[in-house]
Request: fold
Amino acid sequence: MTPEALEPDRRDFLVVAGNAFVAVGAASLLWPFIQQMNPDASTKALSSVEIDLSPVKEGQAITAMWRGKPIFIRNRTKEEVQAAEDVDPAKRRTRTAPSKAMRTGSCSSASARIWAAFRRDSPWAINAAPTAAGSARATDRLTTRQGAYVQARHRAISRCRLTRLRPTPRSKSAEGESDHGRLDFQLHAEIALGQMVR
Amino acid sequence: MGGSTSSYMPKSRWGKWFDERLPIFRLMNDSFVVYPTPRNLNYLWTTGGILTVCLVAQILTGVVLAMHYQPSDAGAFNSIEHIRRDVNYGWLLRNMHAVGASMFFLAVFVHIFRGLYYGSYKAPREVLWILGVIIMLLMMASAFMGYTLPWGQMSFWGVTVITNLFSALDTIYNGLGTAIVEWLWGGYSVSGVTLNRFFALHYLLPFVLVGVVGLHIWALHVVGQNNPTGIDIKEPSDSVPMHPYATAKDIVGIFAFLIIFAWFVFFVPDYLGHADNYIEANPLVTPPHIVPEWYFLPFYAILRAFTSSFLGIPLGQYAKLCGVVAMFGAVVIIAFAPWLDTSRVRSAKYRPMFKWFFWAFVFTCVALGYLGSKPAEGIYVTAAQIFTLYYFVFFLVVMPVVGLIETPKRLPRSITEDVLSKGKGGGSGSGLPTGATAAPEVR
Reply:
């Protein structure tokens, strides 16, 4: 082999450049084949739900579907709220912190109340059922005073983030009708997978 | 194949251990790395690699599309639209699959014409050739059933027309054709039941194809590749190792092919399809012109050339049967080429007479394709009948007769001589000095 053959020549450059080109092409071709299995646009469109809470009377619970799983929403009675209120915060296993919007008071009353569902002093209780078996238990809990307290500190709930994203015509017309007016909200709950399984 | 003459040397201890137990790397090495390929292969020989790419691409995109497709009369059409609009990159995958079918046929037609021109069907490659015809039949069956799946108007009516062809058998034995058609349909008309079974078969056949392609490549590697001269490899200087010479050339061919492929996928994905197929299947409305996909048009033209008469010969009630037999016969007759051709010279390069008949045959196929897209009336029918006649004359008359009466040109003594003579004579030669490529693998 001649010494100049050891030096990188034009062919070496072409081989490296060509292989790099193929590698980039193959990777970008692979991506659609992987990505196609992710939730598609029609599934994503249904990943946030709007639930009308106005017909839910105090003490009543409803079940709504969200991302293929039931969510239990309960308008707690004053006693239930009080029962939760009376628990010593030090004994609670988890605590929820008010959002920035809550602290600054910049959010609307509706979203405040929805958010407050995660607080023990809110009349609204929302519970997500981890599994089919768990959903029965969750429903059961909501029917008792004690259950209201139990679900109030439910970890799965504590990770839910509810945001009122946009006023809808429906909610506009309902505003001011009563303190319990229509609550159209989008539930942007990011329940960690571990929480779901639990 | 390689057998005892294999030069494969495992590089590692593990490689040696594995090779003694399953010599698959030896097989790959002997078949696709050191395998001797004629040194004079032109770009038409890259169609084999291109077709392999097509088959793999169709299977990969097809498997992925099946994850989103619903094979039911209620869901099929909408699920295709769902794939195109909602599924992540569904538009790309669907276009790749639909355009891919056309590209597959484009490549296979070039591949077959190449075989006919260079006499690749002649001894000892008869089995290789017949396997190729079987592959084309399987491709046609797969493509036909695949075209049903979007469940548009052309899907529905195309299937109705083609499956109804079997009813022509009623003229031979009353009720036979009808029984076959109802068996195919799973009912008394094309319905969701038909769609469902076609989907199952459309998923199955490509894997059968893979198997037959495996046999095709095996048969190829037993007898060796043909080449533009049609002369066998006689001395070591006639061949080069497959890798990197043939593989590099294949890659160039594949990239050129993919550029055309990508142009269709990204810019005119529906150009090769039919607008009527974006109307959902409706048994109550028949499209004004029912036409198959372009790759079936030559055969469709042959089918429709048999009206109540064929070039003045009255056919009566057997017109449909004749058309059906001719259409299937047009494919099957290709398999008999090895025995119909009487010339001992393979390559048309050295066959001055046959060459012209070959190009007339190519023109005939293109013309039939054009006529297949036209309504079956007036001059179109007459023209289709003339070209249909020549299609069969080419195989049944030209191949046997021209081989006997033609005086072939002098053949080069070897592939090497042919390659080197091009450099000397000037004109069309590459201008390389003699021996410049005698051992091109040595730097």
Notes: Chain B touches chain A through 14 residues (CB under 8 Å). Chain B has a mean pLDDT of 92. The radius of gyration of chain B is 24 Å. The CA atoms of residues 84 and 91 of chain B lie 4 Å apart.
